């Protein structure tokens, strides 16, 4: 049998060799920048001397170098355990949302139960990771641990935890500044007091995992086979979850969230052909340590050129996206069947009632946002005539902009869900919003004071390129829904990491991205709001022209083509349409709101089945959601404001989990 180059031992050996050489060279360069020499005698004399430079070396560079190995090994071991338990190559502390849960619980304890911190940050973080892990596992069990549902649930819950944490940071920013410097994944050290206990805790978790590797091998069998051999699959999974959560919690509590190291270490181990769990755990820990060391040393070198400190977590996010793209082919097609979005007969009377209820809810949401507010002392009041006239120049544009953004995201989400026959497709989940963000950032950095139309154009190009890339990556799989979704998540992770890297770089132009990324409508004027409203209104007459395509695409490409539809033209037209709407909406509410994901589902549950009525119903729901989110963000925590996009994500999070539970029940 002929051995392909990709599977040749010499080819596979280049992967660990390259990682080792990169870590070695970057560490040497970083040490040279720190000490001015690579001569061992000079470095040793400097470490033994007294003075500022000696302290920077012995209490700064050396513990930071060592903690990158310890943290990387802990995260990679946790990732290997999760992947083994779920039989899912995409499972890791970051993709399962465990790191986000640990960070949220630490934030809540710091703010509201500071006395609980006496039991240790590790225990608080462990509790958060366990709560999220239990929720993800419970939902995954309903779907038979489908890779699609597991990763979607973990990422949605992780994003939800991040949204709540960010909202708390906005309200209590004076108490959480240091917490969020830590939370970005910064390995900067000023002594050995973090490294020493972390090393002991990670070592305990790794030793326990390696000692239990043999019984945990039973999880490679199906549940019936494992039970016949006297094992309890449920207990073994729980044991894996506990060990993985412990390693995640102690690492997050020490150095913050460092994304994708827990994904990369086991992935490299699998690529070079290691199969036994004990060997996989050891190799994953080694590769995770080398990867985080290389990333952190690279960050130190880069920070010297940029003149600012860049967190290691920002750089690992940039590398995580391409890794997810590579792993797409390894994802098993075990996702539940897509829920049909074709026309289903619905009683006219029921549909009329749904439309009436929907219109009433939208009108009530808009009326409440217009007339209900708070005075300068924080008391609730109905604001008429003079009071309303006073606040209208600020309130009016925000309401108009929220309506336009919700409408555009909902229509774009409906188009993407019907075109891909994927119930979980949306501008947010497919990374289209992140692509639009990159396009907008490129315009901001290339042109001084760009106009709104120029920003929309740049964002539209970024969104369109993202959609094209997703379809190119999934073409060989026949545009399978789970592959489309994971490709979108991968590209979104790449863009999000790049955005975080730019924000951490200290460029003044990147500072404005912080408020925008959370979806704030603060400072919106009637000029920009009117432009967004024009784009939203223009989209409505286009929907009837797309209705036939949107009704046929859920039936599959073969049926659609047999009905005389040119797939390239129709798919390209709908991609461009969704890209423009996403770009305009992202310009206002940021890349995360989930309005484009839940509005089509709620419209379908309300009885809107035909493509045209489905799109219009989703538009109404999206508008009501964003208006309500903007109003709640302004009024709920007065005088502080929660950005509309962030508040929409907080509102939509429980709804998304409920939708995933429905998918799990359907598949089971």
Short description:
This protein has 668 residues and is mainly α. Helix content is 75%, strand content 1%.
Coarse morphology: globular
- Structural class category: mainly alpha
Mean pLDDT: 80
Oligomer: single chain
Strand content: under 5%
What is the class of the largest domain in the CATH system?
Mainly Alpha
What is the correct CATH architecture of the largest domain? Orthogonal Bundle
Number of helices: 26
CATH superfamily of the largest domain: ABC transporter involved in vitamin B12 uptake, BtuC
- Rg of Cα set: 26 Å
What is the straight-line distance between the termini? 41 Å
Label this structure with key terms:
668 residues, mainly alpha, ABC transporter involved in vitamin B12 uptake, BtuC, 2 domains, 26 helices
Structural commentary:
With 668 residues, the protein is an all-alpha fold. The chain folds into 2 domains: 5-328, ABC transporter involved in vitamin B12 uptake, BtuC (Orthogonal Bundle), CATH 1.10.3470.10; 348-667, Orthogonal Bundle (ABC transporter involved in vitamin B12 uptake, BtuC), CATH 1.10.3470. It is 75% helix and 1% strand. The chain has 26 helices and 2 strands. It has helices at residues 9-35, 40-48, 52-86, 98-112, 121-142, 147-171, 173-183, 195-211, 213-216, 223-228, 233-255, 261-271, 277-306, 312-327, 348-371, 385-420, 432-446, 452-473, 481-504, 508-517, 526-552, 557-562, 567-589, 595-605, 611-635, 644-667; strands spanning 372-374, 380-382. Strands 1-2 form a two-stranded antiparallel ribbon. Strand 1 and strand 2 (380-382) form a beta hairpin. Helix 3 (52-86) packs antiparallel against helix 11, helix 4 packs across helix 5 and helix 15 (348-371) runs parallel beside helix 25 (611-635). The longest helix has 36 residues, at 385-420. It is globular.
